[in-house]
Design goal:
Layout: H1 6-17, H2 23-30, H3 34-46, E1 66-74, H4 79-90, E2 95-100, E3 107-113, H5 116-128, E4 133-140
Helix pairs in contact: 1-2, 2-3
GO molecular function: sequence-specific DNA binding
Organism: Pigmentiphaga humi
Protein name: Leucine-responsive regulatory protein
Protein backbone atom coordinates (compact mmCIF):
# COMPACT_ATOMS: atom_id res chain seq x y z
CA UNK A 1 0.00 0.00 0.00
CA UNK A 2 1.21 3.48 -0.78
CA UNK A 3 1.85 6.04 1.92
CA UNK A 4 -1.12 7.20 3.98
CA UNK A 5 -2.27 10.66 3.00
CA UNK A 6 -4.09 13.23 5.12
CA UNK A 7 -7.55 11.88 4.22
CA UNK A 8 -6.53 8.34 5.21
CA UNK A 9 -5.19 9.65 8.51
CA UNK A 10 -8.42 11.57 9.20
CA UNK A 11 -10.47 8.46 8.44
CA UNK A 12 -8.33 6.39 10.80
CA UNK A 13 -8.40 8.99 13.57
CA UNK A 14 -12.18 9.23 13.44
CA UNK A 15 -12.73 5.46 13.23
CA UNK A 16 -10.42 4.88 16.19
CA UNK A 17 -12.75 7.02 18.28
CA UNK A 18 -16.04 5.69 16.87
CA UNK A 19 -16.23 2.82 14.39
CA UNK A 20 -20.04 2.78 14.56
CA UNK A 21 -20.41 5.75 12.22
CA UNK A 22 -22.18 5.12 8.95
CA UNK A 23 -20.16 5.67 5.81
CA UNK A 24 -22.23 8.80 5.15
CA UNK A 25 -21.44 10.21 8.62
CA UNK A 26 -17.75 9.35 8.27
CA UNK A 27 -17.56 10.94 4.83
CA UNK A 28 -19.11 14.12 6.21
CA UNK A 29 -16.60 14.34 9.02
CA UNK A 30 -13.67 13.66 6.69
CA UNK A 31 -15.04 16.08 4.05
CA UNK A 32 -15.06 13.64 1.13
CA UNK A 33 -17.88 12.06 -0.88
CA UNK A 34 -19.47 8.87 0.45
CA UNK A 35 -18.16 6.71 -2.45
CA UNK A 36 -14.63 8.06 -1.95
CA UNK A 37 -14.83 7.38 1.77
CA UNK A 38 -16.12 3.84 1.25
CA UNK A 39 -13.39 3.10 -1.30
CA UNK A 40 -10.69 4.39 1.04
CA UNK A 41 -11.98 2.45 4.06
CA UNK A 42 -12.11 -0.74 1.96
CA UNK A 43 -8.55 -0.13 0.78
CA UNK A 44 -7.38 0.41 4.36
CA UNK A 45 -9.06 -2.84 5.41
CA UNK A 46 -7.67 -4.82 2.46
CA UNK A 47 -4.16 -3.48 3.13
CA UNK A 48 -4.39 -4.56 6.78
CA UNK A 49 -4.12 -1.01 8.11
CA UNK A 50 -7.52 -1.52 9.73
CA UNK A 51 -7.18 -4.95 11.33
CA UNK A 52 -10.73 -5.21 12.66
CA UNK A 53 -13.57 -3.19 14.14
CA UNK A 54 -14.75 -4.25 17.58
CA UNK A 55 -16.77 -3.21 20.61
CA UNK A 56 -14.65 -2.56 23.70
CA UNK A 57 -16.32 -4.25 26.65
CA UNK A 58 -15.82 -3.23 30.28
CA UNK A 59 -14.21 -6.25 31.99
CA UNK A 60 -15.70 -5.32 35.37
CA UNK A 61 -19.24 -5.25 33.99
CA UNK A 62 -19.03 -8.74 32.48
CA UNK A 63 -17.36 -10.51 35.40
CA UNK A 64 -13.72 -10.43 34.26
CA UNK A 65 -12.52 -7.61 36.47
CA UNK A 66 -9.15 -9.00 37.60
CA UNK A 67 -6.38 -7.82 35.28
CA UNK A 68 -2.96 -9.42 35.45
CA UNK A 69 0.21 -8.36 33.68
CA UNK A 70 2.25 -11.54 33.45
CA UNK A 71 5.95 -11.95 32.73
CA UNK A 72 6.90 -15.38 31.40
CA UNK A 73 10.42 -16.69 30.97
CA UNK A 74 11.04 -19.90 29.03
CA UNK A 75 13.81 -22.41 29.61
CA UNK A 76 14.63 -22.69 25.92
CA UNK A 77 14.27 -19.69 23.59
CA UNK A 78 14.65 -21.51 20.27
CA UNK A 79 12.39 -20.08 17.57
CA UNK A 80 10.19 -23.18 17.55
CA UNK A 81 9.70 -23.05 21.34
CA UNK A 82 8.80 -19.36 21.24
CA UNK A 83 6.29 -20.05 18.46
CA UNK A 84 4.85 -22.99 20.44
CA UNK A 85 4.28 -20.76 23.46
CA UNK A 86 2.66 -18.05 21.33
CA UNK A 87 0.34 -20.64 19.76
CA UNK A 88 -0.65 -21.91 23.20
CA UNK A 89 -1.42 -18.37 24.38
CA UNK A 90 -3.47 -17.67 21.24
CA UNK A 91 -5.79 -20.45 22.40
CA UNK A 92 -6.23 -19.06 25.92
CA UNK A 93 -9.35 -16.90 26.13
CA UNK A 94 -8.17 -15.17 29.31
CA UNK A 95 -5.00 -13.96 27.56
CA UNK A 96 -6.02 -10.74 25.82
CA UNK A 97 -2.54 -9.64 24.73
CA UNK A 98 0.74 -11.49 24.23
CA UNK A 99 4.01 -9.73 23.48
CA UNK A 100 7.40 -11.29 22.79
CA UNK A 101 9.84 -8.88 24.43
CA UNK A 102 13.56 -8.34 24.62
CA UNK A 103 15.74 -7.94 27.69
CA UNK A 104 14.14 -9.59 30.69
CA UNK A 105 11.31 -12.08 30.37
CA UNK A 106 10.56 -13.70 27.01
CA UNK A 107 6.88 -12.70 27.04
CA UNK A 108 4.60 -10.16 28.66
CA UNK A 109 0.91 -11.08 28.71
CA UNK A 110 -2.21 -9.21 29.71
CA UNK A 111 -4.86 -11.48 31.19
CA UNK A 112 -8.47 -10.84 32.22
CA UNK A 113 -10.06 -13.27 34.67
CA UNK A 114 -13.05 -13.13 37.02
CA UNK A 115 -11.12 -13.79 40.24
CA UNK A 116 -8.03 -15.36 41.83
CA UNK A 117 -9.44 -18.88 41.51
CA UNK A 118 -9.73 -18.39 37.75
CA UNK A 119 -6.22 -16.94 37.68
CA UNK A 120 -4.84 -20.02 39.46
CA UNK A 121 -6.62 -22.29 36.95
CA UNK A 122 -5.05 -20.28 34.12
CA UNK A 123 -1.60 -20.52 35.69
CA UNK A 124 -1.84 -24.28 36.06
CA UNK A 125 -3.26 -24.85 32.58
CA UNK A 126 -1.20 -22.33 30.61
CA UNK A 127 2.08 -22.11 32.48
CA UNK A 128 2.91 -24.83 35.00
CA UNK A 129 1.60 -27.60 32.74
CA UNK A 130 4.04 -26.50 30.02
CA UNK A 131 7.50 -28.00 30.45
CA UNK A 132 9.30 -25.08 28.80
CA UNK A 133 8.04 -22.37 31.21
CA UNK A 134 10.77 -21.54 33.73
CA UNK A 135 9.37 -18.50 35.55
CA UNK A 136 6.07 -16.66 35.84
CA UNK A 137 5.67 -13.33 37.60
CA UNK A 138 2.31 -11.56 37.72
CA UNK A 139 1.38 -8.02 38.65
CA UNK A 140 -2.29 -7.40 39.40
CA UNK A 141 -3.88 -4.11 38.51
CA UNK A 142 -5.41 -2.27 41.45
CA UNK A 143 -6.39 0.76 39.36
CA UNK A 144 -6.41 1.44 35.64
CA UNK A 145 -5.63 5.12 35.11
CA UNK A 146 -5.39 4.92 31.31
CA UNK A 147 -6.59 2.51 28.66
CA UNK A 148 -6.59 3.39 25.01
CA UNK A 149 -6.72 1.41 21.82
CA UNK A 150 -5.83 4.28 19.49
CA UNK A 151 -2.59 4.35 17.56
CA UNK A 152 -0.93 7.77 17.27
CA UNK A 153 -1.13 8.94 13.69
Amino acid sequence: MEELDEIDRRILAILQNDATLTNQELAGRVHVSAPTCLRRVRRLVEAGVIEKQVAIVSPEKVGAGLTGIVEVTLDVQAAERLADFEAAMAGERAVTQCYRVSTGPDFVLVVQVPDMAAYHELVHRAFTAQRNVRNVRTFFSVHRSKFDTRVAL
